[in-house]
Design brief:
Two copies of one chain form a homodimer. With 390 residues, chain A is mostly helical. Helix content of chain A is 78%, strand content 0%.
Chain lengths: 390, 390
Amino acid sequence: PEKLWSKFVSVATKAKKLGQDDPRRIVHSLKVGLAITLVSLFYYFEPLYDGLGVSAMWAVLTVVVVFEFSVGATLGRGVNRGLATLLAGALGFGAHRLASFSGNICEPILLGLFVFLLAAVVTYIRFFPRMKARYDYGLLIFILTFCLISVSGYRDDEVLDMAQKRLSTILIGGATALFVCVFLCPVWAGDDLHNLAAINMEKLGSFLEGFGNEYFKTPSQGQSMEDKEILQGYRSVLNSKTTEESLANFAKWEPRHGRFRYRHPWQQYLRIGSLTRQCAYRIEALNGYLSSELKASQEIRSKIEDPCTKMSKDCSCALKELAQAVKTMTKPSTANCHIANSKIAAKSLKSMLKTGLWQDTDLLEIVPAATVASLLIDIVSSTEEIAESV
Amino acid sequence: PEKLWSKFVSVATKAKKLGQDDPRRIVHSLKVGLAITLVSLFYYFEPLYDGLGVSAMWAVLTVVVVFEFSVGATLGRGVNRGLATLLAGALGFGAHRLASFSGNICEPILLGLFVFLLAAVVTYIRFFPRMKARYDYGLLIFILTFCLISVSGYRDDEVLDMAQKRLSTILIGGATALFVCVFLCPVWAGDDLHNLAAINMEKLGSFLEGFGNEYFKTPSQGQSMEDKEILQGYRSVLNSKTTEESLANFAKWEPRHGRFRYRHPWQQYLRIGSLTRQCAYRIEALNGYLSSELKASQEIRSKIEDPCTKMSKDCSCALKELAQAVKTMTKPSTANCHIANSKIAAKSLKSMLKTGLWQDTDLLEIVPAATVASLLIDIVSSTEEIAESV
């Protein structure tokens, strides 16, 4: 029992941390509970219950399945589900009619063939990358509804009635889910995507800010845990692609909200994101030189310290400025200036290397930092171009 | 109509390409069609149909929803669905009983409260990363079943009967899906993960193989499209994390098959994968130096050509050897030897740089290739350690 208790405590602390990291999670849970309860009670007090019959449960099912974390995802699922049910219902009814004309023996064969063909073809369509991204769920529901209509049609001629009932309950369920999702503390995927783009840039900026001090510090200076955490922050950027893509997909479903129009250029965010990642890859390479065994000696480092710290500082300022600009959707004011500064620093470093200052030293450890930093400048300037177009 | 036709043709060619890229997709589509048709026909010829009633459609629903591309995913969903239905059914029945004791007025309030609490708590649990990875679908079904049992219980006392029927149909549907999935050309997520690890390493190897030629070629030599494609192959490795993780999750559900035991060390693949990605990040940085404006002059490059090509060739051989070793699950025989060779080359390059050969040249463009290559050696050796443990 004591072990159980400690396990319970650890789970509870984890749950608490999860909530603190993003309080919207708690709100979301409560919203789901509310929506489901609403639908359940609706059917409890609904005098038409007997009219809708078992189909009533489709409303509950719809709420449970459709309700997602962000508005875009919920809307996308809802629209997918509604349209797919409608289309598949019509098609299923047609197939059922067609088969019933053909006599008692042919009917099951024909229906089986229809079901087989449709299921196979639609499943194949689900492999198309573009379909998968936006309509995967709809295609699934399409197969499902078509098959259900056909199967239930075997014994029962109330197909039309059933299809209509199902559609109406799905509408009720979907509407409830959407209503709760949109009007109670909505979570917009577009906002998330927007913030993610800014945060990722900022993380890279923080890394570069810390990098200068970290690389050129003397061994006697210790490293605080906090610094280390900042330096590791960029790592999450490396694998941000999937998150960004799904957020952009959800965002496309969202109507106008806040500062975003309906057809906000979400694709732009993906482009910014991929440039940010490119920059992060370079930083990952740069990060490798922080480990002490690959560092150049104190003496050599001190020679290049000045331009290098300047470069990383300026790049960091530019990135942070850009992040801020993306966040507030304004034009970056001084970013260009920072970039120009870092370019000057890079040039001075280059000319420094050209002079014969280095004849007797091991070159391997000095130059990479400089080269990567100069690459960074290219990246920053291209990021800037895009940020300006927002 | 002509436009429509050209659109149709383009879709058709895309569909064909999709099938050629991975013929298993076509097989999968046919399998889904078969499974659904089987279940539909089963209910058509089933004399017990009237006994199972509307629940029969749950079997079709289960097949449609559970059937996934790989065996692991299908098994995972099936088990999730079965267990969740069982648990939630029992709990829902209990809640229903408890509420019905409390009198007519309290009943809906109490039930509403139960539904709200359970939905909110379980939705919150879905945010736990570990739960999300393996039991997300089960938790969804858990909410669903619990609510359905409660809602239907309002008017109908046949809850127990209904729960039992639902479970049996789900079992039938799940069994059909699993049977078709496992015994007709099964697709194992474990195999895919295994191959992915090997292919990714091989891609990096191909890049390094081509890199030497590409970097040190004279401007007069043209570049064939094929070469370019090989050099871009590594890009897909950069974003392979999500795919690998989901495959590993699926693989954990799979029983013994082929050369894999039930508890194959799938975690190991993730570790190999992350090292491979690390290596890919470095290669991404290296790739930046291929563009002509960043290349050093012909003369300088020719000086370091010998050790550099040696290093990249040896690294490439080692990586390919390791990939082969992972694929065939044998110990790599000559990989160590290649790694040792490339280390020797790196050393000779280092000493070459130490001598004052470079006094009057621009250093910026020479060294990165060498440094990144020496980093690569570290990566390769660590990859090797892990490959040996397979």
